[in-house]
Amino acid sequence: MIGARAGIRLKATLRAGQVSRVLLAAALVLLIAYGWFRAGMQVLGGLDPNFTANAWGGPSYLGAMACHYLDCGLIMAVAAGALDLVLVSSPTAISGKK
User: Fold this and answer.
1) Cα–Cα distance measured from residue 84 to residue 61, given in angstroms and rounded to the nearest whole number
2) pLDDT tens sequence across 32-72
3) For residues 46 and 61, is the Cβ–Cβ distance under 8 A?
4) How many CB atoms lie within 10 A of CB 1?
5) Per-residue confidence at 93, pLDDT binned at 50, 70, 90?
6) Most distant CA pair in the chain: distance in Å?
7) SS3 at position 12
8) Are 13 and 22 in contact (CB under 8 A)?
9) How far is Cα of residue 47 from the mean position of the Cα atoms in its chain?
10) Are 35 and 75 in contact, with CB atoms under 8 Å apart?
11) 46-67 burial, b for 16+ CB within 10 Å, e for fewer?
12) pTM strictly above 0.85
């Protein structure tokens, strides 16, 4: 679920009819959604004892999780920042009024 301000800005972007912005925003939202999916896969993968044998963070579950979540968090944060720049800013998005 997205926040109220993001929903208002997304609707304003759609109403503006800027197809390139809408497509770029959709790609960034998909990247963020994939980050959550990938983080969940890491948790489930940790149930396999051989999953962390050659992991980036070393031969421990915590080391592997730290490295994967650091990457995932960084990618999602950059995507969210780019999404903030892509969406149209409207006066109602800032004030929260309809």
Assistant:
1) 34
2) 999 989 888 878 877 777 766 665 556 677 777 777 788 88
3) yes
4) 4
5) very low
6) 54
7) helix
8) yes
9) 25
10) yes
11) beeeeebeebebeeebeebbee
12) no
